[in-house]
Known about the structure:
This protein is an alpha+beta fold. Helix content is 33%, strand content 16%. The chain has 18 helices and 23 strands. The strands form 6 sheets. It has a 7-stranded antiparallel beta sheet with strand order 3-22-21-17-16-11-10. The termini are close together. 55% of the residues are buried.
Amino acid sequence: xxxxxxxxxxxxxxxxxxxxxxxxxxxxxxxxxxxxxxxxxxxxxxxxxxxxxxxxxxxxxxxxxxxxxxxxxxxxxxxxxxxxxxxxxxxxxxxxxxxxxxxxxxxxxxxxxxxxxxxxxxxxxxxxxxxxxxxxxxxxxxxxxxxxxxxxxxxxxxxxxxxxxxxxxxxxxxxxxxxxxxxxxxxxxxxxxxxxxxxxxxxxxxxxxxxxxxxxxxxxxxxxxxxxxxxxxxxxxxxxxxxxxxxxxxxxxxxxxxxxxxxxxxxxxxxxxxxxxxxxxxxxxxxxxxxxxxxxxxxxxxxxxxxxxxxxxxxxxxxxxxxxxxxxxxxxxxxxxxxxxxxxxxxxxxxxxxxxxxxxxxxxxxxxxxxxxxxxxxxxxxxxxxxxxxxxxxxxxxxxxxxxxxxxxxxxxxxxxxxxxxxxxxxxxxxxxxxxxxxxxxxxxxxxxxxxxxxxxxxxxxxxxxxxxxxxxxxxxxxxxxxxxxxxxxxxxxxxxxxxxxxxxxxxxxxxxxxxxxxxxxxxxxxxxxxxxxxxxxxxxxxxxxxxxxxxxxxxxxxxxxxxxxxxxxxxxxxxx
Length: 577
Ligand code: GLY
């Protein structure tokens, strides 16, 4: 099934409030749902749904659920199908996070984030003068973290899997073998990165050919790798033939990842960050992701302000959200890192008494200067290419998964013999505390490099309960903008009564403390609004082509049906039954 493609041009006035009327926003495209004939809703189904970056991956996940599989079975198949059809971010040599809520209301989180190799050192990306060599943490062999995805899917299977593993792998192996159709957006992306992939790999490979829309891409090597993993299990990737080929490949490029690194890798079940925003209970990813804590801080900082009355994307709403984001990202840079290595005052950071003081300086008259603001004081305490999918099954289980290679096609290193790209997640560490990473994020000591440590992430797979029942699953790629995209999408539905589809499509803005600039998606916010912000001292960036996030989400409608929100910014597709 393809995503809805009936596109109409429409102006959408989100609120009747005076302020937002003045600053109305333009939704350039809107999909019509042929099932409901309602132009504002996404796909609506009765029982189960997958929303992901590729139609093939959503379909494979849904087919698994049609066979009686649960959301966790579907997760495994969807994750692998994205590795085949969406190699820019889908992966088996990257990592990710899953947040889940079972049919009984139990919640949990799985961390299958990459780790620094045993031979990693704190200053491995600095030259002899102590200057950061930024390319080294982004491109090629030293950028690669020890991959976690395969360990992740096997942990999910061990705890929750219900169908035979071979049944989950089979459709994906067939897809890799028989090929998938390249979309227009995908062809343009592949061609954009062709040159750098060729350079990093010193030669041609499957992904350096010229692709155009409609071509079929077959990846026999990946099909073989997946077949071996389905036959031999997790060990195949971490100790078996696949592990040996991977390490030989890395050795040939002077890499530092060894078989010991692969053998030592474990995915970890963690407690998610759980907090309330008004009458919602929000369940999101805990460290080593900054997502859950930052999202909690921002929502709690804005909670006292009547942003519904201010209006969607109105001047006052944007000011309150921006100032809350500024404070949360300042804390992120100081306090957050791998909880197995640094002590994080998680409870305190999201507590009302701590957050109360953080907005004291804020005034609607003038922007706070990021230079004047640091992390908050707590007494006693001293990568844009990613992909997200949401799944709900007919048993009542729901999951939110964000997985990544970090940059587009990760380190760009492609293991020909195995059919996959290797991540460049090492760039998510603070290579030199104070120096920005590829997302401009400044990190501190808490996120310094150490052997076996996990690098801090912004991935924010999130589930929401309303009235003690599951209500929404959402998440997005977008590096540092992940947290603020998740924030705005949930507010769009909860505060501004948008449908799920409208909420993911609505124009977004982003602020992250440093650099001290508010970024807006291009052509979506009025000049008058941006000028008003400038007059109050906000530094504005609204460059042509700016896209913030690519949210995939599912919510429960009041009648109990599921509505999908598949972001129009990509090829994202909701499929269900
Ligand atoms: N690599 C992007 C992130 O984890 O935030």
